[in-house]
Design the sequence.
């Protein structure tokens, strides 16, 4: 059973969001950690979030994970019979 393009896009879209939430905390420094900040702002607010770089890294990491998963699927590692056997459930 082959994926059609809309299914592959949906899988990549969900994977991209999961990887984004994993990469968000990297490299973030709060106002409290740097000892600076505007009066009246939360001390935990980030100084520079660097979202552009995080979006690029998220796209690259998601593409690599997606490519590996598609390769494994087309090699037969992700077929339903094999997964059912690994989980010990009858198919």
Sequence:
């Amino acid at each position: 059973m082959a994926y059609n393009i809309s299914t592959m896009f949906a899988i990549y879209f969900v994977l991209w969001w999961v990887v984004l939430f994993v990469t968000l905390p990297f490299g973030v420094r709060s106002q409290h950690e740097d000892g600076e900040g505007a009066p009246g702002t939360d001390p935990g607010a980030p100084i520079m979030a660097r979202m552009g770089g995080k979006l690029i890294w998220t796209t690259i990491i998601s593409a690599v994970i997606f490519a590996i998963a598609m390769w494994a699927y087309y090699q037969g590692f992700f077929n339903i019979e094999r997964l059912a056997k690994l989980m010990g459930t009858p198919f």
